[in-house]
Model the fold of this input.
Amino acid sequence: MRRAKLVALAVAFAGCAHAGLKKVSDCDQAPVEQRLQCAACTVKNDVPGTSDAYEYRPDNDPSNRCVKTN
Done:
């Protein structure tokens, strides 16, 4: 029974792998054809003095993948 719960939990976390990518280094989790767009979106988070935060969401509509979170 305990093993089944662990497997279910692992499957749930695997399904959330593309929930939102916030770092350029996380863009390797995006599909290959979206990695450049992911990097262009998330590199904004590394700019000093910027209070805005961006998240790349590979599963969103192509026109709404780079989302401002603040």
